[in-house]
Design brief:
The complex is a heterodimer of chains A (213) and B (401). Helix content of chain A is 65%, strand content 0%. Chain A has 213 residues and is mainly alpha-helical. The termini of chain A are far apart. Helix content of chain B is 45%, strand content 18%. Classes of the chains: A mainly alpha (213), B alpha+beta (401).
Chain lengths: 213, 401
């Protein structure tokens, strides 16, 4: 089975395929995807698994369904690979598919919550560190973030956790800069209102930094 | 130094580790297996037709469907035949069998396993494993409570996928792959033991169970276990109490009930837990002690962790917590500096390292060690160019001769 070797002995699990070698590797990978080769799955997984896992882990917050969602992302990448046009944008394209997949999952959960009133909140993934302080912070933050509408939630995490600017969020999510700014502002306002309404959350969660989006 | 960290950075730090290597290794195999099935490109008109059909069905379903829980009777099936309530299935000696249920749940029986479908109601399903191995994948979100009984134990399904082994008399084990299960019965603590993904509970030679232990619980009794029998031999009783207390500690700590958890840890023997717990759980023990206000026990657990698991990520993390204890509680900046340097040697990069470098920088500036501070500031700018304290690090370098 074909595996794309990392350039200059870099670890294969590395997320970086940078520079000319990285571009060449991505061009080969894009070609493999377009051809629909059965070897594409392993090559795509080896190139992007670290990144996709990291993105999903952060967007959903160590979710119990993490592995299923990562699998969905790779299935979508392989299905859509034949239509890939610009190899130099491969990483951005994979990022956009990941974000769209997570968004779809959040919308499905929203619908489920609507029909199943007693649906429990999403549990943490078993691998999540048991360090009490961090787990508590994440559980509390998640309890608020899960109340945001899916599109706002994605924008919120991409900005505050992954440090993407509004224009980068617009590019990843495939909407305009003004939409990105509006969603970010809406998410921030909603988040702070939820936290402000709960003295316990106000004490427990660090304040959001006021930043330009 | 207690500094309010930006929420985003704090969340990024909390989520820094990502899934474990074991999860990723299993994930690769699973994804490659799933994607190796041939796929045909979708035909647009078929997709549109299917979408329209699904939309119509969904509209009818939404209009007619009552809110939770689902009220459809559960149907079981085996080898293409329908299985009514109270059926018993015995898998042949040479291979396993799969039971499927109308809500999408599946139970795979190991060879020779015998299981009874004692209740298949809209809100409750109860299976009774006489002996053997079963691997269950229970569909989420149906509103139906599933229980698998095995001898004197009951496994109540809170989440999705798990396996149960029961040899009919002496050996019982539950392993959870996904979701959560609550195991109750016999010598287990009142209220049961909650198991999460990757966790396993085993019992060998359990105290003898009532003869009718497999029978469904009486009305109003639920799955509440009998308390530890008074006629246990003393050594077995002690072992049961000790194990139960350790479980108590882990369950209570995982729930965030630190005062109760620390009491359970002391009951189980704090020293014993320090010797026996895994690195991850030992860190949990130390943090539980911190949160319960017992700094000396927290320090003891952290030092034990470093002694037992040198070179591990948990050991490095313990150094960071020891630095916090020294700085915030003991007001001992020299000791805090020593532990911060230890942490940075063992874990030079990452979100926690950025915070540790910033704290070390502040300590060095406070004691007037400009040259050392400049070196730490240079490291900070090199390793954390996007860090929160870039401006302070630059200012230190500009001020240094």
């Amino acid at each position: 089975m074909l595996r794309l070797e990392p350039p200059h002995g870099q670890p294969n699990s590395s997320s970086s395929a940078s520079g000319a070698d990285g571009a060449l590797a991505d061009a080969l990978l894009a070609e493999l995807l377009r051809s629909g080769s059965r070897e594409a799955a392993a090559a795509v997984y080896d190139r992007f698994s670290t990144l996709v896992n990291r993105w999903v882990w952060r967007l959903l917050g160590a979710d119990l369904d993490h592995d299923d969602i990562v699998q969905q992302v790779f299935v979508r990448i392989l299905r859509a690979g034949r239509r890939l046009r610009e190899a130099d944008k491969l990483a951005g394209w994979v990022h956009a598919i990941t974000v769209n997949t997570v968004h779809g999952e959040l919308r499905r959960r929203q619908v489920r919550r609507f029909f199943w009133r007693d649906s429990p909140p999403a549990a943490l993934h078993g691998d999540f560190v048991r360090e009490v302080e961090m787990r508590d912070l994440l559980v509390r933050a998640k309890s608020v973030i899960e109340k945001l509408p899916p599109a706002e939630r994605i924008a919120f995490v991409l900005h505050y956790v992954d440090r993407h600017s509004a224009s980068e969020i617009a590019g990843i999510c495939g909407y305009s800069l003004s939409t990105a700014k509006r969603r970010l502002a809406g998410a921030t306002r909603r988040f702070e209102a939820i936290v402000a309404a709960s003295p316990e959350l106000s004490r427990a969660l660090p304040r959001l930094a006021a930043e330009e989006s | 130094m207690t500094q309010r960290r930006n929420l985003g950075d704090a969340l990024a730090a909390a989520l820094e580790t990502g899934p474990s290597r074991r999860t990723l290794a299993a994930q690769r195999e699973q994804i490659l297996a799933a994607t190796s099935k041939p796929t045909r490109p979708a035909r647009p008109y078929l997709v549109a037709g299917a979408c329209a059909a699904v939309a119509m069905v969904a509209a009818v379903w939404v209009a007619r469907r009552p809110l939770a829980p689902a009220n459809a009777t559960l149907q079981g099936a085996w080898q293409g035949r329908s299985l009514p309530e109270r059926s018993t299935v015995v898998a042949p000696a040479e291979r396993g069998e799969t039971l499927s249920f109308s809500d999408g749940s599946r139970v795979e029986l190991g060879a020779r396993a015998e299981i009874a479908l004692s209740k298949l109601a809209p809100e409750q399903a109860r299976l009774e494993l006489a002996h053997g191995h079963v691997d269950a994948t229970i569909r989420k979100g149906t509103g139906r409570a599933w229980t698998v009984a095995a001898g004197p134990y009951s496994v109540r399904v809170v989440g999705t996928a798990f396996s149960v082994d029961w040899d009919g008399s002496r050996f019982f084990a539950v392993t959870v792959r996904e979701g959560k299960v609550l195991v109750t019965g016999n010598d287990l603590r009142q209220g049961g033991v909650l198991l999460g993904p990757g966790e396993r509970l085993e019992r060998k030679d359990p105290p003898s169970a009532p003869a009718n232990a497999v029978a469904p619980p009486r009305e109003g009794q639920g799955d509440a276990p009998p308390s530890a029998s008074a006629d246990l031999t003393s050594s077995r009783a002690e072992a049961a109490v000790a194990t139960t207390s350790k479980d108590d500690f882990l369950v209570e700590a995982a729930r965030g009930n630190y005062a109760t958890a620390i009491t359970a840890a002391r009951r189980a023997g704090f020293d014993r837990l320090e010797r026996e717990l895994s690195a991850k759980d030992l860190l949990l023990l130390a943090n539980t002690a911190r949160y319960a206000g017992s700094a000396s026990e927290a320090n003891g657990a952290l030092l034990k962790l470093r002694a037992r698991f040198p070179g591990s990520a948990s050991s490095a993390h313990a150094a960071l917590l020891l630095a916090s204890q020294a700085e915030d509680r003991d007001k001992n900046p020299a000791e805090a500096e020593r532990w911060l340097r230890t942490f940075l040697v063992e874990s030079p990069q990452g979100e926690l390292a950025a915070g540790a470098r910033a704290r070390l920088l502040a300590l060095l500036l406070r004691r007037g060690a400009q040259a050392e501070a400049a070196q730490v500031a240079r490291d900070y700018l090199r390793l954390h160019p996007q860090g929160q304290h870039v401006a302070q690090a630059r200012a230190v370098l500009q001020a240094s001769p």
